[in-house]
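Office hours follow-up: a student asked to see two folded examples consecutively, so here they are.
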Amino acid sequence: MSNDGLARFNENAIIPWNINDTQLSPAQFVSNIPWLDWTTTGKEGDVKYKVSSVEKFAIWYSEQAESLIKNENGYIWNGSYWKQVKPSEVINNLNVSIISITDRLSVSQTKKRELQRDVKEYLVGLGRTFDDSIKTKYVAFKNATLTLETGMLDKPDKNQNIIGGFDFEVSDDDRLPETWIKYVKYMFGNNDRIFWAWLGYGFYNDMRWWQGALFLLDPVGGTGKTYLVSKIAKALFGEERVGAFKLKNLQAGNARFETARFIGKAIMVDDDATKVRFKEDDVFKAVTGGGLSPVERKGIDGTDYMITAKIIANVNEMPIFNSGGAITRRLHIIKTIAPMADKAEIDKRNRMFPEDELQEEIPLLIPYAVEMFQRAMAEDWKIEDDISEDMVATDPFDLWHKTLESGEFKAHDLYNSYTDFFESLNIGEDAKPMTLTAWGRKMSNWHKKIKHRSGVMYQL
């Protein structure tokens, strides 16, 4: 009886008790309960209650419990937004509520089972017309709904069908979080506004601005950027909406498990993505581009999921990506300018950015971050001293591909040519050419594949 659904049901509903528990007459007692009737039995005229309409009970229950079932999901209105839960939670709430009500009224077991069956079907029926799509124009908080385009805060409205939200309040105070602004400026210089805009971007359930990831490059190391990112992200989004992942796992066999970490998150942080080498970047592109990504969670069948969480990766040295416009456009790199955070430096920062002021300004962070994102979009902000072009390695496949001549060639001969070329580059002891399967997929994107009796050939 402690979860959201039952708590709100018991708070909202007039749960009927036996007549001995009320000063009302039986007629008065049932007058406001459309599904309840009464009669008298025996010589002493004992009051007996009965459920007069299962349909009216179902309507009454759905209005009080504010829950429904759609497809594989259950939804419960918690007063701020529709919370997605397992269907079993909605059904359990229903069963417990019906048992509680019918026991109080001494209703028969047969009627109790009938109610449990038919009201469940009613809740499923409600779900058929329920719009559970992602609402990109709104963000729900505990005390208000933020309209992203206007910055207006309105009372939560369950008819907007906003799925999910943040379980803390947002402030309508128009002051600026001055101490936080100074702190971020101290860490990132003139690119502080890009950092703020990226955080504001995290409140949007789409990839309308930049695709890709924000890399916080700290060549010196130990400047305290990881501490700041964790502190400000949790202050903005709450701990439940900030996740951790490893950039290196967004490739090969680990990808479908790593992407599962992104579900339900606004910001994903890799606290050290230094020296990651990307050989297969298709999952990275999908995750950072708003496309469907393979997701597999323990005990749940694998599926494809559209990820909209924004990535922040802390690095002392940039990961290695192969060349290509699609990758270069996804690398957004800002450098830290703060000195290394030794004891003297930490003491200095504590004086410059007092913890009590930071805590006091937390409610001011959300409006500021969202405003900075909107300005970035409207004014087409750019990163100062952008070094993304210099961070992309040349793909050995692309170099080899440029050496090919026109004609029809056996796949086996072409692959051997590719591996020989790869070895000639002397990239490093740990570097290995693509597998034949991966190479074949890439070739098929470029050239016509022809199957002969003698084997597979490509027309170049």
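And the second, which I mentioned at the end of office hours:
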Amino acid sequence: MAFDFSLWIHAGDNTEQVGTFLHTHASIETKLNQYNLHLQTHKNHYLLKTDQVSQVGIRSLQDAHEMSLIGFEFLKILLKAPPFHYAMVGLGLTKWRDLHEFLPYPKDLLLTKGFVVREDIYDKMEISANTDQSFRLDIGFFRNGYLWIPYIGEWEFPF
């Protein structure tokens, strides 16, 4: 089973423009390496990833370090991307669900580091989240019109 590292984007009604933009990113470079990128498309979702890092999750400090640096580069791509609905950086996103599945119960999603969401979509989620008084949200400004749960890198290990 693949448990790869990727950038997952829901383009919403801007699918063509987001797809064209993502196709211009054939590679990224970190201080460790240059990574070729592959783009997968499914309806209005995009998955941008590299096969040059572990495909089975984090197995070492090196894996975590590499994935973290790649994650920060993916976020730089999002900073310049045309309008999209929401995005996520992380492990195992190939089976990520649509946002409508989270709107009634957004707590898990809104605690996920590396989640970027358009403000108007977040407003719909926040209403549900605020019904639970024990829920504290750590969301901030990402770029004009977008908020995010800050990405801190891949520093939790399964070993």
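Two things to take away from it. The chain has one domain: 5-148. Helices lie at 15-23, 61-80, 107-110, 119-129.
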